[in-house]
Amino acid sequence: MTPTELRAQIARQMFDKPTAGYCNGYVQANLVVLPKTHAADFERFCRANPKPCPLLEMVGPGTAKTSKLAPGADLTDTLPRYRVWRDGHNEQEVADIKPFYTPDMVFFLLGCSFSFEEALVKAGIRLRHVDQAKNVSMYRTNLPLVGVGPFQGEMVVSMRPIHRSQVAQACIITGRYPEVHGEPVHVGYPEMIGITDLAKPDYGDPVEIMADEIPVFWACGVTPQNVLVNARLPMAITHAPGYMFVSDIKNEAYAV
Amino acid sequence: MTPTELRAQIARQMFDKPTAGYCNGYVQANLVVLPKTHAADFERFCRANPKPCPLLEMVGPGTAKTSKLAPGADLTDTLPRYRVWRDGHNEQEVADIKPFYTPDMVFFLLGCSFSFEEALVKAGIRLRHVDQAKNVSMYRTNLPLVGVGPFQGEMVVSMRPIHRSQVAQACIITGRYPEVHGEPVHVGYPEMIGITDLAKPDYGDPVEIMADEIPVFWACGVTPQNVLVNARLPMAITHAPGYMFVSDIKNEAYAV
């Protein structure tokens, strides 16, 4: 399935699954939609926290169509699932946001770690959430962010169990992709970054960790959702964790 | 101090310390000296286990002078401390091996992780054993080697405590130096590789590990000494752990 075909299925509401493992080779992106009044602060917040919030493209106000990641794709119905936030609460999850769209909205597309998973798999590193068709495990941490205006809080991370003999290789491989979170922010010892129970992720699905595996943690584009809880904006929209925008850009375009 | 000056001090027996932190920027090497009868097996053993035993140069039989790592340097008195092995026992440590030298000896110079420490320090990664002028901590593990002839056993690793926020960077940086052990073989959780007490290294000095640090393990050129215990050869010579041969080759010559 090409990204164009996947986005068409999504727009017809025929695809409602996490996008990890689909359209291998193409960059996937997190979405944050804010009214124009908060856009400048949020852009500065992303620039100040590039590891969890690598800004790939800004769209609008006045349009919901990307020009860089997938020219012409409409961001109001080409992600499988959205979250609508009011006053810091995730009020509902919806399949398209056309009913909520207003022309003052600005769309932020942020890099996603699914983009480097292809490179890990190519190097022989198995990914359990992909093998088991689950959503990746994501956790709130105590890693502080650089706050800007109403946007304050701590980093969210994704976790992948990696065989102990492949941990260093996973760091090296993902380090080649700085625009999609790059190398891990933490390796092993979840309690050191404020995670108390790996079996209970804050977002996504739990996965088993085998005796010869080490939990490895990457900065995650769900971080803004953690921050939105604190910001309590009257209105915001994001993707649902794991249900990403799949672009037309090849992952290798972001490799260094 | 240049490598030439350091080797001259050593030859005059005016320097008897671990060489970590000296002649920054220059490749340091492990030494194994064997009679010619065992040289072919040991060379194959090194080729089969390139991570702990990266073969940089072979010297002899018939000469003890290097031609590649430090042209003209005499390997019988330019390392600060040697170990003389008989029947698998480390019989004595000596400052030069001229009394033991016979023309049938072959000298193997193997890459050493001290060579990438300069790059770690340049990236802002502190190394406690260097700061405290100690020998690096080294441990026997349960990581199996590929055996060749009498050379059989498990890998020895060096350990450096790294701040949790710099672990991935340490993997990336040292991964650029595959000829001097490259990226770590293990990160965190010492018990997973058979190390029961980090405070009691099998070679070198113990160093403290702070609450925000993770023990990171690299393959170590002391591995052959572990293997010599099993091989029980009538006669062998090695460097003493941490007391390396300092070459005239710049570390960057081995960076990829």
UniProtKB/TrEMBL annotation, chains A, B:
Domain of life: Bacteria
Alphabetized UniProt keyword annotations: Lyase
Alphabetized Pfam families for the sequence: D-Glu_cyclase
Keyword Hydrolase set for record: no
Molecular function per GO: lyase activity
Keyword Lyase recorded: yes
Family matches, as HAMAP family: Hydro_lyase
NCBIfam families recorded: PRK05463.1
Family: Belongs to the D-glutamate cyclase family.
Designated name of the protein: Hydro-lyase
Annotated source species: Desulfatitalea alkaliphila
Taxon lineage: Bacteria, Pseudomonadati, Thermodesulfobacteriota, Desulfobacteria, Desulfobacterales
